[in-house]
Amino acid sequence: MPIQLPNLDDRTYTDLVEEARRLIPTYAPEWTNHNPSDPGITLIELFASITEMLLYRLNRVTDANRLAFLKLLNGPSWEAPDQSDPLFKTKMADAVRETVSAFRESNRAVTREDFERLALKADATIARTQCLPRRNLESGNARAGEIDEPGHVSVVIVPAGQENTPQPTRELMQKVAADLEPRRLLTTRVHIVGPTYVTVRVRLTLVLKPDAIEDRFRFSLPSAVQADLDGRTPSDELRSRFDAAGMTLSPQTTIAVNTAQSRWLITDGMTLRSYTVRKEVDSQASRQQLNVYEDVGRDQAVKILRQFMHPLSGGRDGQGWPFGRNVYVSDIYELLDASPGVDFVTKTVDPDTKKTLDEFIVGDRDRLQYNEAGDLSAVEIRAHELVDADVVPDDMTLVLPKGA
C-alpha cells in the first residue's frame, strides 16, 4: 500500500481571491471599487491564479525530489536508477518501498525488547534470549543478577540443542556481541552470557491406582551378573543380555542398589527408561533367578518432569521454562496427579528415621522457600536462571495400593 502524502495547502483560487478582497479595507481603505472590472481586482485574480499553481506544485513530489530524498536516506554510496531507463518508474517504486521498509525495521538496541529481538536474529542457532537491564552478569559475582549496575545490559542467549542444559559457545557469544555493538547506545556496556542452570532434584512417592501395574516382566539374567549389579557396573555381559532382549542400554546407564543383594534399579539416562532387577525364586526349577522388569510408572514420572522443566520445550506453553520462574511444589503434584495410573502423590518417608522428606533437593538450601506451616513450597529461580531437572527414577518411589 503506497504512503498517503499529506495535503500541504488546500486553498483554492476562489479562497485566495476572497481572502485578498477581505484585506483591501485594512491595507487600502481608499480603494472602494471592488468590481471585476477594476484593474486592482484583475491583478488580485492574476496573483491568485499563479499562487494556486504554486500550491499545486507544492503538493507534488517530482522524480528529482524523490531521488534526492532516497540518496539522503540511503547514504551517498546509494546508486540511483537511470532516469533514461524505460523501467525507471518501476525501479524508483522498488527503491522507495525498500527504503521505507528498512526504516520501519528497528535496528537500534534501546529497550529490553530491542536487545532480545536483535540478539535472537543475530544467529539462526539461538533459540531463546533474555535481557537484564542494569546488570553485569560477566562480573563473576555470584549475586550479579541482583546488583544494580547503571549503564550495563546483560543478554542471556540459549542455543537450540537436544541436551538438557544447552550453553552457547564462545564464538556464538562473540558473534552476538559484535552484532549488537553498533546498535547500542553510546554509553551502554553490553554483556553476552549463557544461562545459569539451577539443578533441581525431585523426590516423591507415587501411589498407583488399583488397576495400575508397577512394572512389566521382560526377561531373566544369569546369576553371575549379580556381582556386576552389586558393584553398580554396567558390564559388557550385562549389556549383551539387554541387547539380546531388544533393550539396548546407552553409555549413560547407571545402577542403583535398592535392596542389598536382592533388588536393583538400572537407569538409562539417554532414553529415560528404568528397569527393576529382582532376585526371585523359580518355583518350578527350585532355584533363584534375576528377573528384569520394565519400570513403567517411574519412567513416566521422570519423562513428565524433565519435559516440564526443560529450557527449550518446557513450561505450560511448551516454549521453554520461563527465565526466573520458581519451581513450585504444587506444579509437580498437579502434573504427576494427572499422569495415567497414578492415584495420588505424597511425600517420601525416610525408611530409617520415618520422617517425611522435602520434595526438592538443591545444592543451595537458601533457595528453598517454606510456607507458614513449615512445608516446602518452591525453589527460588532468579531472573537470569533456568532449571536443570535432575530427575532420576531412583528418587521416585512407587507404591501399589493395599489389596492390589
Describe this entry's structure for a reader.
With 404 residues, the protein is α+β, with helices and mostly antiparallel strands. Helix content is 30%, strand content 24%. The protein contains ten helices and 17 strands. The protein has helices spanning 13-27, 39-58, 63-74, 88-104, 112-121, 170-180, 226-230, 236-244, 296-308, 329-337, and strands spanning 126-133, 152-159, 189-193, 196-202, 204-208, 216-221, 253-259, 263-268, 273-282, 287-294, 327-328, 342-346, 360-361, 368-370, 376-379, 385-389, 396-399. Helix 1 crosses helix 2. It is elongated and about 135 Å long. The two termini are 71 Å apart.
Class by helix and strand content?
alpha+beta
| Global Rg | 38 Å
- Residue runs with pLDDT of under 50 for 5 or more positions: none
**Tally of contiguous helical segments:** 10
Distance between the termini: 71 Å
Using the alpha-carbon principal axes, give the shape.
elongated
Helix content: 25-40%
Mean pLDDT: 89
Largest sheet: 5 strands, antiparallel
Number of strands: 17
H/E series, N to C?
A: HHHHHEEHEEEEHHEEEEHEHEEEEEE
Strand arrangement, largest sheet?
6-10-9-8-7
User: Strand-residue fraction?
Assistant: 15-25%
